[in-house]
């Protein structure tokens, strides 16, 4: 592969194995993500228009036939109307099963791109060039694709793994700091469920953790990708162990829905992590020091750890449509200790509300 500088390849296993490439100045390798594709639809949102233009040029120079498709930014793009518009545009361009989709952007665009690819002709190849920390460590990896609906976050989607993921850390130079920190909420999640070295690295130097040019952030990105890759390699369809990646997400997705998807996912996850830790502590499963460590580390990254105290009656019904629920039984990922994730099924409503007091402001 013709790329400059150190390149890390992280394998993701399963029926259709692929690699996550992590490094700097990697864009020249993009055509190799989709070998033999004829047309390539490049989905991107306006903030990435300049990078999209570069990719279109690179793809054309490599003999592909790129079709740039601009979509609305952030969660506004993760809608059925936007997906339907993409399908119409693929149809007008005559996209066949020999063609492919490329998602360039944050997690919202890569979720949409994967979903568009999963449904077009019942599934065509796609690849991802994530441009946010969150996209690199989480959204672009693992094959969960989807959109939001009025009923809830990501309730419509498909498991459709990418053919490859290219995480070019150079793109993070333009990522607003607030977005960079939001992505670290998912990195912290990986630290608590599987790789405590992540937590040590952030605690030692939170400023280094948020420096897009630094080596600490690169190590955090690679460690989090390895956690995700290991989990999804063995359980693509979330039949069991993959649920641990949903740590903090039961409350997080409810907050996002109640906010009409105007809250950042990473911010909602930060609050959700503190909530899940408190739930485990109150249930007698997690020691107070590890529970408190959640709030401390997220606060050190300037992430929110509270949400409106009076929102509880609106949040609980939304939590009931969480994908981990079974019938009337809510199921939460909790910790039984550091890097010891487990499940809490059917907690009493009093316990759920009492835990919310820890985040209610
Ligand atoms: N599929 C999964 O497994 C998975 C995992 C985690 C999160 N997600 C989803 O990912 C989404 C959140 O992703 P996100 O945090 O990246 O948010 P996002 O995609 O909304 O991006 C945040 C903002 O940063 C901008 N941006 C991204 N990269 C940039 C860059 N390099 N330079 C300048 N601006 C840039 C975007 O255009 C957007 O305005 C949510 O929809 C969430 O549900 C999916
Ligand atoms: O990959 C997974 O599995 C995750 O749960 C990762 C989460 O960070 C991510 O937000 C995911 O989109 C949530 O999945 P959902 O099935 O609860 O929508
Ligand atoms: Zn998430």
UniProtKB/TrEMBL annotation:
Its main location: cytoplasm. Its cofactor is Co(2+); Zn(2+); NAD(+). Zn(2+) binds at residues 186, 249, 265. Belongs to the sugar phosphate cyclases superfamily. Dehydroquinate synthase family. Keywords: Amino-acid biosynthesis, Aromatic amino acid biosynthesis, Cobalt, Cytoplasm, Lyase, Metal-binding, NAD, Nucleotide-binding, Zinc. Binds 1 divalent metal cation per subunit. Can use either Co(2+) or Zn(2+). Catalyzes the conversion of 3-deoxy-D-arabino-heptulosonate 7-phosphate (DAHP) to dehydroquinate (DHQ). It comes from Plantactinospora siamensis. Pathway: Metabolic intermediate biosynthesis; chorismate biosynthesis; chorismate from D-erythrose 4-phosphate and phosphoenolpyruvate: step 2/7. It holds the Pfam family DHQ_synthase. It catalyses: 7-phospho-2-dehydro-3-deoxy-D-arabino-heptonate = 3-dehydroquinate + phosphate. Its EC number is 4.2.3.4. GO terms for molecular function: 3-dehydroquinate synthase activity. InterPro entries: Dehydroquinate_synthase, DHQ_synth_AroB, DHQ_synth_fam, DHQS/DOIS_N, DHQS_C. This is 3-dehydroquinate synthase. It is found in: Cytoplasm.
């Amino acid at each position: 592969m013709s790329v400059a500088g150190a390149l890390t390849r992280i394998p993701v296993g399963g029926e259709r194995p692929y690699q996550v490439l992590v490094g700097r100045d990697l864009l020249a390798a993009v055509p190799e993500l989709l070998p033999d594709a004829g047309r390539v639809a490049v989905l991107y949102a306006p903030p990435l228009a300049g990078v999209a233009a570069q990719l279109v040029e690179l793809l054309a120079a490599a003999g592909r036939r790129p079709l740039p498709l601009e979509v609305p930014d952030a969660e506004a793009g993760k809608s059925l109307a936007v997906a339907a518009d993409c399908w119409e545009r693929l149809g007008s361009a005559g996209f066949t099963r020999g063609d492919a989709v490329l998602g360039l952007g944050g997690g919202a665009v890569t979720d949409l791109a994967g979903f568009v690819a999963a449904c077009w002709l019942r599934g065509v190849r796609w690849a991802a060039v994530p441009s946010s920390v969150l996209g690199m460590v989480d959204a672009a990896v693992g094959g969960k694709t989807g959109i939001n609906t009025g009923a809830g976050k990501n309730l419509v989607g498909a498991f459709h793994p990418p053919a490859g993921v290219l995480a070019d850390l150079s793109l993070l130079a333009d990522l607003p700091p607030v977005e960079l920190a939001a992505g670290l909420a998912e990195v912290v999640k990986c630290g608590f469920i599987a790789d405590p070295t992540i937590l040590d690295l952030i605690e030692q130097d939170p400023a280094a953790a948020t420096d897009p040019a630094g080596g600490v952030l690169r190590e955090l990105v690679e460690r989090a990708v390895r956690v995700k890759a290991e989990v999804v390699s063995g359980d693509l369809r979330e039949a069991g162990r993959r649920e641990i990646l949903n740590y903090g997400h039961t409350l997080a997705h409810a907050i996002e829905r109640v906010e009409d998807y105007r809250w950042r996912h990473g911010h909602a996850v930060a609050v959700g992590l503190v909530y899940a830790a408190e739930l485990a502590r109150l249930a007698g499963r997690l020691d107070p020091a590890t529970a408190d460590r959640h709030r401390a580390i997220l606060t050190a990254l300037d992430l929110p750890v509270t949400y409106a105290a009076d929102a509880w009656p609106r949040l609980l019904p939304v939590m009931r449509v969480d994908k981990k629920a079974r019938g009337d039984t809510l199921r939460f990922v909790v910790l039984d200790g550091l890097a010891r994730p487990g499940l809490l099924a059917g907690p009493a409503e009093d316990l759920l509300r009492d835990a919310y007091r820890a985040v209610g402001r």
